[in-house]
Amino acid sequence: MAKLAQVLLLFSLAMAMQLVHSTIEDPKEVDEWFQKIQYSKEKVSQLHFYFHDIVSGKNPSAVEVAKASITMKSPTLFGLVNIFDDPLTEGPEPTSKLVGRAQGLYGSAGQQELGLLVAMNLAFTTGKFNGSSLTVLGRNAALKPLREMPIIGGTGAFRLARGFATAKTHLFNFTTGDAIVEYHVVAVHY
Question: How far is CA 64 from CA 27, 54, 56, 84, 113, in A?
Answer without folding.
Answer: 38, 12, 11, 9, 20
